[in-house]
Each structure stands twice: as C-alpha cells, then as structure tokens.
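Hey all, quick one. A colleague (J.T.) asked me to put the zinc ion job into the tracker so the inputs and the structure tokens live in one place instead of scattered across chat threads. No bug as far as I know, just bookkeeping. Sequence used:
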Amino acid sequence: MRTMTPKCKRHSSMILKSCKLHKFVLAYTRGANNSGAGGLGCEILKNLALSGFKDIHVIDMDTIDVSNLNRQFLFRASDVGKPKATVAASFVMSRVKDVTITPYYGAIQDKDQEYYMQFKLVICGLDSVEARRWINATLVDMVDIDNPESLKPLIDGGTEGFKGQSRVILPTLTSCYECSLDMLTPQTAVPLCTLATIPRQPAHCVEWASILEWPRVFEDKKLDNDDPEHVQWIYEQALHRAQEFNISGVTYSLTQGVIKNIIPAIASTNAIIAASCCNEALKIATGANPYLNNYMMYIGNEGVYTHTFEHEKKDDCPVCGNLATDFAVDPEWTLEEFIDRLKEQPEVQIKKPTLVTERRRLYYQGPPQLNEQTRPNLEKKMRDLVDNREEIAITDPGLPFSLRLNVIFS
Ligand SMILES: [Zn+2]
C-alpha cells in the first residue's frame, strides 16, 4: 500500500508570501470548440496571484479572439490575435507585486515529465477531454513510490454553461480523471424522426435544416459552420419551419450555437469554479485546512446547488488501476461492429483505434501495409478472432496510454 502525503510539511505553518519554493503550473488550453475555458484560466491566474502564489507557469495554445473579451478580463481589444498565455502573464504581473508568471504559448503535451516535475501542483482549466486525459495520465505515470516529491496533486476545474466541477486528484492515491470518464454526459442526439416529423424545440428546427435540408438542397456542398452565408441559410430554413409548427425562439445566434455545438461560457460559473480550485490549491500548499475529498459539483441551472462526494478509484482504470477492463462482447459481432461499440463507450472515447492481442494483429490504422493486411479482419466474427477472456490492447491517437480490455463473451 502506498502511503504518501502530498502536503508540504515544511511550509504548513508559513504564510504563502514567504513560501517561494512552491511552483505552480496552470494550464488553460482551449480546445477546438468554442466553449471557452479561457475564462476559467483568467480567473484562476488572478486568484492564484492575489492569494500569494509567487511562481506560476501558465500554458495556453490559443490566441485572443474578439469574442473572448466579454469575460476573459485580462485581455483588451488591442490584444486580439496575441497569445493568451503571454498577455495574461504580463497583465497579472503588472497588477500584482512580486509574482513571477512564466507563460508558454503552446500545448501542454509539448512539455515532458521533467518539466512537470519542477512544480508542487498542477491546476487545469482545460476544456478538452483529450488534454485532460493526457495530463492525468502523465501525472499518474510520474509517481515514483520511492520519491514522495514525484506526486503532484492535480486540481481540475471545468465549466459547462451553468454547471461546473472542481476536483482534487492525488495521482495513484485517489480516483483519477480517467476513473470518472464514464460521468461525461454522452452527446444526446435527437432522433431523426423527431426532426423529420414533429419538431418540439427551436433547436430541432435548426438541426432539421442543417442535417436534413442542407444535404437535400446542396447535394455536393458541405455545410461550413463558419461561413456566415451558410449559417444565414440554415437560420432562414429553421425559422420557416419553426413558424410552420408554431415554435418560437429560433434566432441567428441560436442557429450558430446549435450547428457549432456551442455551450455558452458563463462568467459567474467560471468565477465560482476558479475560486474553488484556488481554495484547494491554497489548502494543499499551506496545509491550512483539509482539502476537498475529492469532487465538488456546482449546478446553477435552477438555483444554487453544490454537492461534494468522494469519487472512488476504479480497480480497472486503464491509467491508475492494475486490472484490464472487462468488456462484454457478442461472439457474433464482426470486428468492425466491436470497434463501433467501443467508439460509443463514454469511458473509452476513441476514434481511430489499433487493436492487437498477444498472438495476433487484429486491426492496424497504419502504416498502409499493416492496414491492408489487417483490414479483412474487420468483417470476421469476434469468435473467430479472439477467445473468451482474451486481452485486447487498444491504442488510439486520442489515448495517451494503451487500453487493455478483457473480452467477455456473452
Ligand atoms: Zn484512474
């Protein structure tokens, strides 16, 4: 049993101001979509500096967009186009005395374990599952049981509209990000028949226009979500359909939101979650009070509600557990069907998997020769390819580790 305490005993009674030894890394990388975790990053950086943290590194791969200015308060109109990390760092340093903030404009994945080893803790305000999985797997992998300093607490904050969460992850000791991947809300798709026959909500009308009408009218032209003319067309069709069914609420910005899958970023949610994250950072750094164990949820949709619970470690977690995950498989499935089922699993989250067992190559995405060699397997039945309880190792560009699945024939 590993017993390590992440608390810095030497500094437990000191105030942070004199605690220059602590280094913190803060990553607030935005992903490909527009749901804006940069707002969380601004809040976290400002809170850390004002709480007395002295040495902070900030990583962000994004540049400032004009649409960020309504909530990402460290940026001004003249900063549009500049890297967020650099601008945020110099803004906070100009306002808060004696803090050193080192920006890095790039992805968290650019940095290696040696880089992360220099910090006392890592705070994430990421908006991409992929980046979170990567930093989580990296920090778990860094833990060396003979070196307590190698355990870097990870504080993870996230927001989505009026909802948010903050959590404290002690890699290898508590449940990790990967352990809770099945809590992610699956994309709720509206059945096509609803869209085609009786829409009930304004969003249904927009989806009808983009999923059904666009391909019907413009057979060969792909819908470009960023082309204002395309969005305008979708908006007009959706509005027309909404009027037919007496549905109100179709607007241009709703249309944009639905087709781009945008969840609005809300400044107050960011402020609450960032405050919680920084509170935990302060407690971990100073030992002033017990820290969160280990998951806090905030739900602000219909009132103000928070709930704290201990998310349990999964023995078969592919990152911090040591057992292969059991996966029920119908022996009659083809390999292709098996892969499709895998892709639907919220706790797996893979897109282009390569699959192998100890004794054979099941399917390779590349290189071309291996892909060609293994492609015929896609049509073969699972019972002809693997045995009951045989282990399949899965790698995927989106997976920062290799996943082990135990095939359980049902
Ligand atoms: Zn785990």
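Adding what we noticed when we looked at it: The CA atoms of residues 283 and 289 lie 6 Å apart. The longest helix spans residues 267-286.
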